[in-house]
């Protein structure tokens, strides 16, 4: 169950409106690695934990915080849109500042949301749950979380670099710090699980059921062998259970497949028209 | 540039057709963590590397292999669909086996693809590039790759558990082994980059620009303090640059925001109707 | 800012697992009118309110409750999936109950989420923010809310009708009652706004700027005049500002449009090929 | 069955081309509340009416009109794109008017549609049937229709405010007037159904099957009690069947849920690793 | 402008309900090549024709017919859903026929649409305008139309093969015949345009601006030369302007690209960490 | 199986960076008819061919080439983004060139991809497999391929017209030439199949099962008879099996449908409320 309080986790007040920046800032609200993504990802992972304890609690703690970040960003975006102009582009073009604003802002901020934030990214794609991950396997999922916090902090930093507004920078410096913590915390949780389970997910699948002869082999399918210079091409494997090998000229392990014709009621191209098994051309 | 050879990387031949399993197997072809996702993710990361060398090469090697896996799965799915029945569900229901097949198979495998694989997941969602990640920051991206291989191997293992067909199991044991390698290789690459850059992405943002007072703090927004028992709540931070702290009753750092009214030309609810600042109810 | 507490708003415990019903129940979690939709819709409307007061508070109250409903449904779905079988459809088909479960459950519940709820609807479409509405105009938005609660309660009732599980019915009877309240509350809020603004949204657009001669006319574009029997075809208009009229044989108010050719650099079909203005065939 | 006539319902001719405005106008053609949405929503509702009579007829009348509006908007957009420039942005930037046009227009209007309208919104999202609603319950659906006409008119008004082109304004003043009618007509139809069915949808679900003790309760999940000041918190409920109550400090009605472990073949995090039931930290 | 008449173009009455078939039939209503796709594709092409005459008229004629087909299919689907059971899968499984129906029908047909058709395909993906094509170049677009009618007729035939209901077959035999006509008509229109413009689209781009040395070359990027046996590998090109050539071992025409580092404010992996230009491994 | 080589098929080097053009060029990389679409379309068609021989080989040849085109475009876009500015729009607006760049570039090129290409179109829609076609019927599919190459070449030509950069034009002149070849090759393959199968897809459905009386009839549903002037309205049908007819005033072949009420457990509007069969209004 959830309680909302009306105070913000941290300040979300720009020095002045900037509708073009409002459009860009949508990325970290409603983009692939925006705050909606992490909030819902952590909640779904938490709800799906089969058992109880510190991991579930950590997920719910962090999910609730990310929802507070959605709120801060929504507030900031509404303020960046304060009094945004609408109007005739051609007339506006005579004043380059107004022209740049009108040309660069997201038209839906005026037409659709009435100067409010939208659940969308910086080019207007609506947020989709296709972005999020919750598998029931926490090591797999915490890796997704570390990824999300890495991509998210990277985007926040890029946004920090592209404004001179001190209010916006102040809020971003908060979000960036929180991403530092969240990267640290998922890192800690991952180390703990890896210590118990080793590094390959899932840890519970019997090793003898996989084709172990290719479990530590790098196949060089991209001509040139720069990749042979990496740690992944030699020495003990990272899980400590094998030895890395490098295969410079990988060959196929199977033959050319030929599929049987479809039944007539499927109405694929009929075999006689398909002209299967045409002898190869000799030139 | 790419060359295709007609042989498969590994065998993709089931013991017998199984159209219901064909539907399930689509998940690792065209789902969020299917082979299309990793193939295109690695290619886009590789094409975007600004520079040259072993990381770019490794990305292209692995992307090319994943495309070969798409091919193996497409071949396997077509064979699982060999001679799939179409027909009248009610009549079929009299033969429970036929009924189960007709009820459980993906109707698009008959109607749309003519007994071929589709670029879609196990419930029919078409593959979307919203699944993939390529940021230009390799540590962030390799974490995404380790995530993808973890989720992908988990799904392949679950699919392995849900069939008794030896041909399918044989192919999956190959794919599972390759996922073991790919988890190991991205793990190795990540360790190498972390050794150079420390663990927080991006490493190049000056620490003094973030709100360092909250860079290592766990806020307990989910009542109950099980999460305090974790490594993330105490001791040196994982990046070695701070000390974890746990805040049991986190309070807001900012005030309740009130937004200014919109200009009249936006036609939001007018301020006088909105009745802002109504004194709170006393009960 | 948000706090989570670990207790549920109401019980979410089925009598027994039922993976097929779990799939159906996803509709009211992650479908067009599922609880994710209303939670995020109310939050975005609340965050975008420009001013303060009871409407904003009501939106945040209700949004927080809907998020608690997502949590209840996620919990219920996980329990309905307890110990769900995976396995070979053809073998399963010999036991009609197992066969029906395997054929009817969502394969992603096993392969993707590991027996957890997903942010998706009953056929597997992932939730999308294209479902939600927040315009900055509260009368327009409260109508969207009343719609959402009407559609949502209808779906919950249909789901209630399709199970005999007392635990599930118990939870649904809670959700249905809450939808009763939410329909009542938005209805009350709408009446209040309509009393201040009259019924046409937005109320702030000057009447003289619209083509008032067609503001209260029903054009009968579907031959046959059953629609003339309605209140909307005669008498005072509902906003009290006009008189309904019925036009049985509506004629166009404008001429046939002919578009000018595109510039050559667009490479549309060239005008001379298009053969524009060919004289009509006489037969 | 449908007949098309080549005349437009109303004029769709701008004073002069304006490719940037063409992009914005797409919102009411192919956006969430654009004319495609209402046309197809009314048609699907009409086709799904089980019975016959005035409601079905009204739906088909209005659907046919909305399709005529799609046609008017498509015509207007093509004309706004007449002779739209393509070209080099950097060169164009020297002429601020050309620069503003090139920077602000939708590049797909040149590259993809060849200066024609697209089935997309003002930021280029393609229209999706996820926008539309047809449930078989007309009261629920007419509320959706009133919502659509409210949001649609609001957007049309905002677009009216952002141009000085008299031809565009003339067409919009027509569409705005028609939205006035359509709000009035759905309002009338809703009143009629509410008079027969009372206000809660669906009206046919027995009241005694819902948890009536919470059917008229407002839970204050957002701290601070401004929402208690509303009509929805006191007095007779709007359906006349209960009394509104306000609960200032709502408590959970259920316990903290703990899920049972998944079967081994699912390969979730194993229970022993999950470390469930860790005793809470005391600080 | 459009008029609707209430009679159907052709009968849409099944012998008996069949909810599982209703799900399948959705494919040709709301799938990639369903009737919504062709109706809106032809309308958008028609509205975008810059000029007037027989092509535009043909597009509007056919679009209006396709909309009548949507209506027929929506009617048929509603009737196939007549009295569809809802209920408990496990209980139903005891009656194999009911079990098969419940397991195989689309749950949204009961929960969402109330036994009505949906704007979705046979697996529940909502229709999207990403399916349709209107470029302003009629030869390009008529090819899209011939494609759509080919794919659509193929799907209708596959659906015809999978039912024994005479009413359904009767309606499908109508739709299949109309697809025969539509393939014939677009074929005729294409021939006419090709006679005027030759076969390569767009015909208006000066030949000397393309790299003519590769305009008629087949590069054999898939090892093995079966493709050399085709007409496309030898003889006069189909446009009559060149000679087909076959290149058995195609080599790259450009060098390996190396991208310049990103500016610091982008925070990609820094060049020194990237370790560009690492000398290749020698083995 | 696939091998990658690091050289490009052809040069992809612009004269100078141009971030706004980079955004536009995304259309032919990740749009509906971009290179991802054709690469994956040809691969899926190839993998689904049931048999072997020249058609399958041709598909794989061309698919592999299209993937090389994705690579060229990704490289070109990264170079067009070299050193792209980020920054404050309002400040930038003082320098019209910088302002135009910032206003016109895709913000995700800076924030999300770190100056790399994205799997998206020119307005930022992520690529989706909803674009592609593989039916198992090669005549149907080759028509889709000819369509894709027609639309794709048209878009490349439009992009060629909108830049003055010689490097970009050089690369586009290569891609345009390859599209010339690909249109020619699919045209040749289509002619070959049509010679064997006649022109109507699928060729294998018995003619006597379709309603032959309407297989060659043009119904004039769009008033005015310009369409009667076409080849499709008179003379021998294109498949040689019938005679085209033109019906100027087409009438319905079926009666007005009335659907039976839904069962009570569906909770549609009850029949008594629906007021079916209301006698029509007489005016």
Automatic annotation (TrEMBL), chains A, B, C, D, E, F:
Residues reported to bind Mn(2+) 1: 35, 69, 149, 182
Residues binding Ca(2+), per UniProt: 57, 61, 220, 222, 224
Cofactor dependency: Mn(2+); Ca(2+)
One Pfam family hit: Mn_catalase
InterPro entries, A to Z: Ferritin-like, Ferritin-like_SF, Mn_catalase, Mn_catalase_C, Mn_catalase_dom
Cofactor note: Binds 2 manganese ions per subunit. Binds 1 Ca(2+) ion per subunit.
Record keywords, A-Z: Calcium, Manganese, Metal-binding
Chain sites annotated for binding Mn(2+) 2: 66
An annotated Gene Ontology molecular function: metal ion binding
Residues making up the signal peptide according to the UniProt record: none
Family designation: Belongs to the manganese catalase family.
Protein name, per record: Manganese catalase family protein
Organism this protein belongs to: Metabacillus lacus
Origin organism lineage: Bacteria, Bacillati, Bacillota, Bacilli, Bacillales
């Amino acid at each position: 169950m959830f309680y909302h309080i009306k105070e913000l986790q941290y300040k979300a007040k720009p020095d002045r409106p900037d509708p073009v920046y409002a459009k860009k800032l949508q990325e970290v609200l409603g983009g692939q690695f925006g705050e909606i993504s992490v909030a819902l990802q952590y909640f779904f992972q938490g709800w799906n934990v089969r058992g109880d304890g510190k991991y579930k609690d950590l997920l719910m703690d962090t999910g609730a915080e990310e929802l507070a970040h959605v709120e801060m960003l929504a507030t900031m975006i509404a303020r960046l849109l304060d009094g945004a102009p609408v109007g005739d582009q051609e007339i506006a073009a005579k004043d380059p500042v107004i022209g740049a604003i009108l040309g660069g802002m997201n038209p839906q901020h005026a037409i659709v949301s009435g100067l409010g934030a939208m659940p969308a990214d910086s080019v207007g794609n609506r947020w989709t749950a296709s972005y999020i991950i919750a598998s029931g396997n926490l090591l797999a999922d915490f890796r997704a979380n570390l990824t999300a916090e890495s991509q998210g902090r990277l985007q926040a930093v890029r946004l920090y670099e592209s404004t001179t507004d001190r209010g916006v920078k102040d809020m971003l410096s908060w979000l960036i710090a929180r991403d530092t913590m969240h990267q640290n915390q998922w890192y800690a949780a991952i180390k703990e699980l890896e210590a118990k389970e080793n590094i390959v997910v899932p840890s519970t699948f019997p090793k003898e059921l996989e084709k172990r002869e290719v479990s530590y082999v790098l196949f060089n399918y991209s001509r040139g062998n720069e990749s042979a210079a990496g740690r992944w091409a030699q020495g003990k494997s990272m899980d400590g259970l094998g030895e890395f090998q490098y295969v410079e000229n990988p060959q196929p392990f199977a033959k050319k497949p030929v599929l049987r014709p479809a039944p007539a009621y499927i109405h694929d191209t009929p075999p006689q028209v398909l002209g299967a098994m045409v002898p190869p051309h000799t030139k």
